[in-house]
Specification:
By secondary structure, the protein is of the alpha+beta class. Keywords: Monooxygenase, Oxidoreductase.
Length: about 100
């Protein structure tokens, strides 16, 4: 599998004040349960704990499409949208380069 065949997103979400912890919990649950991602990282802004950044690389185009139309995605999407202070920003991207981590 080449990186060009792995669709990805960079997503920014801002929770309503005080809802950052719940937003991060739901986002993390979604990434772990879906199994559609090859890798992901969820980041929290140092100066604003209600802002989440997510970089998600899907295993394949099919895995992305399957997740996006799943019951889990529908359930999490509704819960997450209720927590947001503004519409999310989602940028479709493809990885250009990735290095494996050295476990040592």
């Amino acid at each position: 599998m080449t990186l060009q065949n792995q669709p990805a997103y960079i997503i920014k979400m801002r929770a309503k004040p005080g809802n950052g912890d719940k937003l991060f919990e739901l986002a993390t649950i979604g990434m772990e349960k879906s199994g559609a991602s090859d890798r992901f990282i969820i980041l929290r802004e140092d100066d604003d704990p209600d802002v989440l950044w997510n970089v998600e690389v899907f295993r394949s185009i099919e895995a992305k499409e399957s997740y996006e139309t799943s019951a889990l995605a529908d359930e999490l999407r509704d819960e997450i949208i209720d927590l947001l202070a503004e519409p999310p920003m989602r940028i479709p991207v493809h990885p250009y380069s990735a290095l494996p981590l050295d476990p040592a």
